[in-house]
């Protein structure tokens, strides 16, 4: 692939952010487990969200070898299909890590801030919304194309495959993600 690309930017963004997240994650583990000697369920969720985050980062970086950040016209069919396979797999790791991190934060807020009734209800609403929307998004991502491999098999897309328009689901997901992040 020749021509301009943003590979360096994508790699730097993924590696720098993931490195900082790793440092903060393990600093939190150290402070909670060794200094405070207090470990709660939100700490477990934070730790369990780290491996999917690292896999997601690795997949995102690997996608640059197969055309991510290059103009579509410069990417071969086989590279584009591999990129789409990696992207398909990454959807699951991304949604898992995001949901676990948010769920951990909600439990942390309940434990630390002892909010008044109204705030607790909002946190409980988020605790309900996070896995519900994650499950719905995961089901949609899995079955948006029939057969499933149509997602990455461009020859099927051109002939017999059928994929639903993901825009309404992505828009809804963006709204619920924003709502549960604030």
UniProtKB/TrEMBL annotation:
It is a multi-pass membrane protein. The chain crosses the membrane at residues 7-33, 122-140. It comes from the Eukaryota. The keyword Transmembrane helix applies. Residues 29-180 form the Rhodopsin domain. GO terms for cellular component: membrane. Pfam families: Fung_rhodopsin (PF20684). It is found in: Membrane. The keyword Transmembrane applies. Keywords: Membrane, Transmembrane, Transmembrane helix. Belongs to the SAT4 family. This is Rhodopsin domain-containing protein. It comes from Glonium stellatum. The lineage of its organism: Eukaryota, Fungi, Dikarya, Ascomycota, Pezizomycotina.
């Amino acid at each position: 692939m020749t021509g301009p690309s943003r590979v360096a930017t994508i790699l730097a963004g993924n590696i720098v952010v993931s490195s900082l997240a790793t440092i903060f994650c393990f600093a939190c583990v150290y402070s909670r487990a060794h200094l405070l000697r207090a470990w709660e369920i939100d700490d477990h969720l934070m730790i369990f969200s780290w491996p999917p985050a690292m896999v997601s980062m690795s997949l995102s970086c690997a996608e640059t070898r197969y055309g991510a950040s290059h103009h579509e016209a410069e990417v071969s069919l086989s590279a584009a299909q591999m990129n789409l396979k990696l992207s398909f797999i990454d959807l699951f790791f991304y949604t898992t890590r995001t949901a676990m991190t948010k769920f951990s934060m909600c439990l942390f807020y309940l434990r630390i801030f002892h909010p008044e009734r109204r705030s607790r209800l909002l946190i409980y609403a988020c605790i309900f919304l996070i896995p519900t929307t994650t499950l719905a998004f995961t089901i949609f991502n899995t079955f948006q194309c029939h057969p499933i491999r149509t997602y990455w098999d461009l020859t099927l897309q051109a002939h017999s495959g059928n994929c639903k328009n993901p825009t309404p689901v992505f828009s809804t997901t963006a709204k619920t993600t924003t709502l549960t992040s604030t």
